[in-house]
Amino acid sequence: MADALTFSHPHLSSRHLECEVLVAGGGVSGVCCALSAARNGARVILCQDRPVLGGNASSEIRMHVVGANSMRPCADLELEARETGIVEEIRLENAVRNAQRSPSMFDQILYEKCVAEPNLTLMLNTMVAGVAKAGRRITAVQALRLSTEGMKIGSATVFQASSI
After folding, report:
1. C-beta separation of 141 from 67 below 8 A
2. Are 120 and 44 in contact (CB under 8 A)?
């Protein structure tokens, strides 16, 4: 695919979106990447192929976010090894708002964090299905939301595929 103009389908409505950062994957790492970029002023699109955010930590899979938190007792005056930054922000909010540890509430917290960011466009149930490249550089992506028969073309300065 030479450029974004080659993305077309006769039965899908098409819309072109532009951003500075496009994140493919709404797991915890993708959400943190998108939030960080948006909070630092970048226009961000976050594409998640599922109806909820969180990846393995979502209500669909139900794995806990552990990261660098070793859960081992520390010596006196020694700090516990643990994640900080946006991951810690999410974990602390989850601890306050979700005492019952409901996986669905964790989904909601991630969703609310994303929709609260004015620079972040969240696209749930939207899979990245193709890319346009100039040489080895990605210049645009094709994102499909089959539930609404919509196709979106996203061009960005930076593309980030979050890991599973």
Report:
1. no
2. yes
